[in-house]
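Quick one before lunch.
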Amino acid sequence: MALTNKQYDIIMREYDNIRTANQHILNERYEEVYRLAPEYTEIEQEIINISMEAARGRILGKSTDSSSQEANYNNSGSQGESSKLHSKLSELNNRKIQCLIRIGKPADYLSPVYTCPLCKDSGYIGQERCSCFKKKAIDLVYQDSNLKNITDSENFDTFSYEWYADDNPNPANGLTPLQNARQAVAKAKEFTVKFDEEFSNILLYGTTGAGKTFLTNCIARELLNSTHSVIYLTAVEFFDKLSNKDFNKDYGKSDTSDGFDTDYLTECDLLIIDDLGTEIGNSYTSSKLFYIINERLLRKKSVIISTNLSLKELRDSYSDRVFSRITSAYKLIPLFGDDIRVLKATR
Ligand SMILES: [Zn+2]
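Model of the zinc ion complex:
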């Protein structure tokens, strides 16, 4: 799991807010109890007095302990004192509980309030992140992924092969659309399983409506659920974000920017660029694509690119250096078949 510093700070601020809100609840409960059971204050005051007296006794006792004989005497004496003190305190604590019960409150009504008792709203159990931290991190990576609206139904279990015909093998690899789809899904799954151990990238190419976006969503979901940071952008959005940073003089001003930090494009664990080739291409888009692809290769951060372009069209549309980076460092996964959207509409 890799959260950016900014994401980490957001989560930690959330814990601050939770602790403040819970402290507020506890303060209100105290006020309520003081109002309904005024003797509660008196008991508390008595506990304070006794504790202070005991503390004073200990300090004085210590300072006069000059000879060992005296020390022994004082020790045995203070042991008796301390057990007396103990029973007095537990009696007073019992009275506090009786007070609460009398006004219809549970015995632990004035105990600290925790939203997550496991980590006491700190996010950590020892050095380990608490399950509530992981939950917050997942929510946050989803929020930042541009995949908030990804549906639960888009996952490997629901990937349907019924749309892929089992005839007309593709001359390029000799596989029918169905055989090819099975292979593509297997490779996509392998990518997620080995994500943390093995750096790799995917170019998913093939005909329109063959399920490329669905397959990238399956991968995204799998990795988001294991709190990897994923950013999904269509090619048009991807270049918009970059040109907004480069050409919009108001970029980064909180009231005008869309809040998207283009640093995420090089920092996130997985960047998905969907439908490459649908943007209006020029030397700017080509050089930006190279910059991001190259930067992420250097940082060993994975990229998935999906495109309707053939490899030849890809080479013609972008610079040679983009094409050579992709063909040398990306797994090329074809996905072809009839247009699923058309099939769905006509069934
Ligand atoms: Zn927790």
